[in-house]
Amino acid sequence: MFSFFKKKQNDAPPVQEPAPPAEAPAADTGAADAPAAAEQKSSWIPSWFRKEDAPAAAEETSAPAPAPAPAGDEGELVADVQTPEERQSWMQRLKAGLSKTSSNLTTLFVGARIDDDLYDELEAALLMSDAGVEATRHLLDALRKKVKSERLTEAAQVKDALRTLLIELLAPLQKPFVLGRHQPLVMMIAGVNGAGKTTTIGKLAKHLQAHGQSVLLAAGDTFRAAAREQLAIWGERNNVAVIAQESGDPAAVAFDAVQSARARKTDVVMVDTAGRLPTQLHLMEELKKIRRVIGKGLEGAPHEVLLVIDGNTGQNALAQVKAFDDALQLTGLVVTKLDGTAKGGVLAAIAKTHPVPVYFIGVGEKIEDLQPFNAEEFVDALLT
Predict the structure, then answer these.
(1) Is 51 annotated as a binding residue?
(2) How does residue 227 score in pLDDT terms, banded at 50, 70 and 90?
(3) Which residues form the SRP54-type proteins GTP-binding domain (predicted)?
(4) Quick one: pLDDT band at residue 33, thresholds 50, 70, 90?
(5) 337 marked as part of a ligand binding site
(6) Residue 316 annotated as binding?
(7) Segment 115-129, tens digit of pLDDT
(8) Helix (H, G, I), strand (E, B), or coil: what is residue 149?
(9) C-alpha distances in angstroms, 227 versus 212, 272, 291?
């Protein structure tokens, strides 16, 4: 799709030998949760960072800096690098991904009469789309009032009214991803197993590079070797450096990555974390610790805390959003896998009950299949 998404045919970047094992960050006891001292310093750590509270040095997979890419509007991450043909292709894929909900909704208005039966069928269709009880009740109440006040008599008019109400409901979730606010901008990525966190990080890295940003990745999922390897592959594809350890405390990896980015003057750091269920309280506590340790590496960080959710999880996504938001104070969501059996209505439920901004949505495995969320486009894909 985008020419800059093509995989570069570079040799695998050299891998620096990891430093000898060092102490992991201290146990989580209030202020004592900063990373522990490293006995051996890695050569890339600047002299001013070589002090007692430095964490264990992480293995670094280095890569040459990416070539400058065309920037979008100043300060915002936008999709204006797409051609009209590419945008049309994206809309077709989005509509195909949401076809299950779309078919249930659009067929209701074909030759329909404006009566209680139509509202009953619309209620059932919205509930089946995972819109949830609160959002469904809100939409139906507002639709009845709009039909009455505007004296709508045609099914097509009612469908247009529903479109307007859905856009109004979802519009607060649409928020531009602003770049250049901090140096570096630190992003922490969380989510349950299988949601697509690592793949999303790889896609976001390329998206950020397309807007002229240098990127550093931190392989904070130290529990799963495959996750580190997967992130390293994405780093190689994008010519992005990856900070990793074969084992140890993920907070130390995150701390190392932030300090390395400060020394290199890297624009963006993305920290991967291990997938976990919200009910695994001890693991959720570890996520909180990672967040605090990142803040010790750079005041005010992480600046973005994103939750990646699978669009096929339905109402369970609401429980995930609430649990992770309570633990980490989320700044945004990335909704993936809308090309499967996704029902789409879950965004309406999120908007009504827990309105965390949706930065990106994904409809496939390709890099161009992850795009900024646009409420009007999403509703059009549902109702056309």
Answers:
(1) no
(2) confident
(3) 357-370
(4) very low
(5) yes
(6) no
(7) 999 999 999 999 998
(8) helix
(9) 26, 9, 20
118 to 108, 143, 303: CA distances (angstroms): 7, 12, 46
| Burial class (CB within 10 angstroms; exposed 0-12, middle 13-18, buried 19+) of 264 | middle
DSSP reduced 3-state for 65: coil
Length of the chain counted residue by residue: 384
Q: Are strands 215-219 and 268-272 parallel, antiparallel or unpaired?
A: parallel
Q: Is 192 annotated as a binding residue?
A: yes
Q: Alpha-carbon distance 76 to 367, whole Å?
A: 19
CA distances to 20, 51, 181, 205, 234 from 259, rounded to whole Å, are 19, 12, 18, 19, 21
DSSP strand E in the chain: where?
59-61, 76-77, 177-178, 185-190, 215-219, 241-244, 268-272, 304-310, 332-336, 358-362, 370-372
The reported pTM is: 0.79
Q: What's the token pair of residue 335?
A: 């909704």
Is 69 labelled a binding residue? no
Q: Is 276 annotated as a binding residue?
A: yes
Q: Which amino acid type is present at position 26?
A: A
User: 191 a known binding residue?
Assistant: yes
How far apart are the two ends of the chain, measured CA to CA in Å? Answer: 24
CB 252 within 8 A of CB 245: yes
Number of helices and strands in the chain (H, E): 12, 11
What is the rounded distance in angstroms from the CA atom of residue 110 to the CA atom of residue 155? Answer: 7
Residues 6+ apart with CB under 8 A from 194: 275, 310
